Amino acid sequence: MPTDSRPAPATRCRPEQPLASVYDAAYAGVPNWDVGHPQRPFVRLVEAGVLDGPVLDVGCGTGELALFLAARGFDVLGVDLSPVAVQQARQKARYRRVPASFLVWDALDLPAIAAAGFSFRTVLDSAMFHVLGDRERDQFVAGLADVLAPGGVYCVLGDARRDPRDVYGITPAELRERFTATGDWAVVLSEETTVQRRWGATPAYFVCLRRQ
């Protein structure tokens, strides 16, 4: 977590959302998306030396990406809707002696994190945005502007949308439309890739946008 004297926002999620229970049930076992290491596109960014901290990892799951970053010297906060996933992430951090911080938090409520005085240079999203509904996507984009400093970067990895009639998944065209319509964002990287699963992989896109 960013290292300063400001208090962290209270740990919370949205109890009225059934998704928290759904993901808790998934993390009671080992879900297909929990591969035990960060996805390769994020590793490449770190290896290239182009990421700036502090970093916010939204939809962090059991924390592999946040732990990878923290072990390499980044100040990082991971947030997830699932208390079970966050508990596992904290246990990993203690076991590995890695100084990553984790909160049970709804990524659609980013303004509350900003209200506590925190801002980030980088926001990373490993397969969170691609499950959001249409209105939730707009809400998330609006909230990013509160926590991401000007010049900061949001990088998202998500399954490629197969059916244009379905909201699940992402396309570079959709991200460009949602983010750049106001002129506040610019696409700096867009590539085809895959999301690794415990059993196989799925076609995906990796897109990075810079806040102007």
Structure description:
With 212 residues, this protein is of the alpha/beta class. It has a single domain, classed as Rossmann fold (3-Layer(aba) Sandwich), CATH 3.40.50.150. 32% of the residues lie in helices and 26% in strands. Strand 1, helix 3 and strand 2 form a beta-alpha-beta unit. It is globular.
Give me the secondary-structure topology.
Blueprint: H1 19-27, H2 40-48, E1 55-58, H3 64-70, E2 76-80, H4 83-96, E3 101-104, H5 110-115, E4 120-126, H6 134-147, E5 148-159, H7 172-180, E6 185-196, E7 201-211
Features:
seven-stranded mixed beta sheet; 212 residues; 7 helices; alpha/beta; disordered N terminus
Helix content: 25-40%
Oligomer: single chain
Low-confidence stretches are: 1-16
Strand content: 25-35%
Which value, in Å, is the CA radius of gyration?
A: 16 Å
So what's the CATH class? Alpha Beta
Question: CATH superfamily name?
Answer: Vaccinia Virus protein VP39
Give the biggest beta sheet. Answer: 7 strands, mixed
Number of strands: 7
The largest sheet has its strands arranged as 3-2-1-4-5-7-6
Count of discrete alpha- or pi-helical segments spanning 4 or more residues: 7
CATH topology: Rossmann fold
Shape: globular
Please state the average pLDDT score: 89
Broad structural category? alpha/beta
CATH architecture descriptor name: 3-Layer(aba) Sandwich
Order of helices and strands: HHEHEHEHEHEHEE
Number of domains: 1
